[in-house]
Design a protein that fits this description.
The two termini are about 30 Å apart. The chain contains 12 helices and 12 strands. It is an alpha/beta fold. A hairpin with a 5-residue loop joins strand 8 and strand 9. Helix 3 runs antiparallel to helix 4 and helix 4 runs antiparallel to helix 5. It folds into 2 domains: about 70 residues, 2-Layer Sandwich (Alpha-Beta Plaits); about 160 residues, HAD superfamily/HAD-like (Rossmann fold), CATH 3.40.50.1000. A 6-stranded parallel beta sheet has the order 7-6-5-10-11-12, sandwiched between helices.
């Protein structure tokens, strides 16, 4: 049995009763609201392709449609990307901005996230450009320029309250991942380590081996085994090409505001909603949220 989820962004609660009724007429099934104006599920839709049917009805309305199985719906393991997923920026681009190199570095970042460049080679190239940047400047950027993605803390805190283990697994840097993992509430963080000289300036290198797409997928598999979980009990979320293997390996892989190559291949795509969409996908109602 499956459930069709219709989800809008809480900042733009565009899911009206009329829209739900229009989708329901084409899909049938049982309607259950999870949050008025934001999220609704249609249990056991009978359309041949419920997601495409819903998207046709929704048209250009800012509402996402996703089909999830009822079995193992509430996940017990969450792995999440950091940059442009749990936070709203790409940290390496913000570091480059402090040196007047943001356009150059951001272009490499964008191409890497689209899957056009080798991740490790692109990381090495960008980090080399940051050589000489002071630790105190990095800490100021972390404090002043990085913002949490909406819904992230509710996602992590709610899943933990219901017994899940949560991991932030980033191709970014521990200086950011450890800091934001603690603020959001993740159980652990894995990321790359920037190397500094004796004057607390970047050497332009990272510790090897780097955290890449293989690391992300492997951490998902390792944690599932450690926790005695079936893969069907796991969820992963990300936006870039280096997240795709992790998303495809998870019981439910969610591409959120993702690059086209990722959105096309992930089992679920969220283009409009915030991170609380991942709770609605699991059948949590607004009253269940821990904020």
């Amino acid at each position: 049995m499956s459930v069709l989820c219709l989800i809008a962004n809480p900042a733009e609660p565009a899911l009206s009763q009329a829209l739900v009724d229009a989708v329901h007429r084409q899909t049938h099934g049982e309607v259950n609201w999870l949050a008025q104006g934001i999220a609704c599920e249609i249990i056991s839709p009978r359309a041949a392709d419920p997601v495409e049917t819903a998207r046709d009805v929704l048209g250009d309305q800012p509402v996402d449609a996703a089909l999830v199985p009822v079995a193992n719906r509430r996940k017990q393991l969450l792995l999440a990307d950091m940059d442009s997923t749990m936070i709203e920026q790409e940290c390496i681009d913000e570091l480059a901005d402090a040196l007047g190199l943001k356009p150059q570095v951001a272009e490499i970042t964008e191409r890497t996230m689209r899957g056009e460049l080798d991740f490790e080679a692109a990381l090495d190239t960008r980090v080399a450009l940051l050589k000489g940047l002071e630790l105190k400047v990095i800490e100021a950027i972390r404090r002043e320029r990085i913002t949490l993605a909406p819904g992230g803390r509710a996602l992590v805190q709610t899943m933990k309250a219901y017994g899940a283990y949560t991991a932030l697994v980033s191709g970014g840097f521990t200086l950011f991942a450890n800091y934001f993992a603690e603020r959001i509430g993740f159980d652990e963080a894995v990321a790359n380590v920037l190397l500094f000289d004796d004057s607390d300036r970047l050497t332009g290198t990272v510790d090897k081996p780097v955290v890449d797409k293989d690391t992300k997928r492997d951490r998902l598999m390792a944690l599932s085994a450690e926790k005695g979980l079936a893969i069907a009990q796991t969820m992963a979320v990300g936006d870039g090409a280096n997240d795709l293997d992790m998303l495809q390996a998870a019981g439910l892989g969610v591409a959120i505001h993702a690059k086209p190559v990722v959105a096309e291949q992930a089992s679920v795509r969220i283009d409009h909603g915030d991170l609380t969409a991942l709770l609605y996908l699991q059948g949590y109602g607004e009253d269940d949220f821990v904020r």
